[in-house]
Design goal:
The chain is mainly α. The chain folds into two domains: 1-91; 108-324, no CATH class. Helix content is 73%, strand content 2%. The chain is built from 13 helices and two strands; from the N terminus they run αααααββαααααααα. It has helices at residues 2-20, 27-34, 38-46, 49-66, 70-90, 109-131, 135-154, 170-207, 226-236, 241-269, 276-290, 293-307, 309-317; strands at 93-95, 104-106. A two-stranded antiparallel sheet has the order 1-2. Helix 3 runs parallel beside helix 5 (70-90), helix 3 packs parallel to helix 8 and helix 8 (170-207) packs across helix 10. The protein is globular. The two termini are 37 Å apart. 36% of the residues are buried.
Length: 324
Amino acid sequence: MTHVFLIGIGAGAAAALLFASVASGSPLSVLLFYLAPLPILIAAMGWSHWAALIAAVVAAAGLAALFSPFFFIAFLIGIGLPAWWLGYLALLARPAGVPTADGLEWYPIGHLVFWAALISAAVVIVGMLNLGTDEAAFRAALHQSIERVVRIQIGPQGGAPGQSGAPALSERVLDIMVAILPVAAAVLTTITGIVNLGLAGRIVKISGRLPRPWPDISAMRFPSYAPLVAGAAVLASFLPGLVGIMANALMASVLMAYAVLGFAVLHAITRGTGSRPFVLGGVYAAVIVFFWPALILSLLGLADTMFDFRGRAAQKRGPPPPGI
């Protein structure tokens, strides 16, 4: 138990340093900030979820001592507890109903990805409620926050929106940013959550401490309730007020999860084809450069849920080789 406690303290210190690095204002610090959950996830997957829980509390306490007590709750809700929970789920296992190499059935990777999306949406929604509990208060608080950031970035010589010397479209641009920021935050939080989960798994696997076998990512499936959550989020996004805005954030997170599923479908159905490297390379490049093709991948993931493209492709070519 002592080594678990020490690992938790070390991981917590690393997570706190990564989180606090954003205060430097350098571009690299932004990347380090988004990697703050990584030490907690590594502690969970390599040692135990108790080490991850200790790491989350230690990091939150350290940030509260350095900056403000507000950071204790903010870190726990936004980073610490979500990373701990994902790490806990990643190591869940039960006796397998069919013969396996270790006799265990591990928590499905698709369920983990969908959990990451739901947690990301919840974190964004909690942040929204912290700004205001109704649409008017939320938009006003977010507008002021963005305006303060813009003033810091452009300096006093740029003027303030609405004042002489400020760009004519500043207010309009700020209004657009207020409208799209919740969705953008949900998308970014979901991406970083899934990426950190994958990175932690790879790092722990390389170290030889990962107890579960590496999953076949191209074969992952989402839980049966996933389409219901996606449909409910889409319908709720048409509601007025803050509820509609929160539903937009949930919809964005779920669609990003389905984009990951779309990549898995693409990997599976192109397996064994000569054009596979060009297709996969082109799709990855298009998503990185333009991003909007991710929506097409989301639709592919949703369609696979109904039509099972991977199952049909597997029947045509026979049993697939392991891997992605």
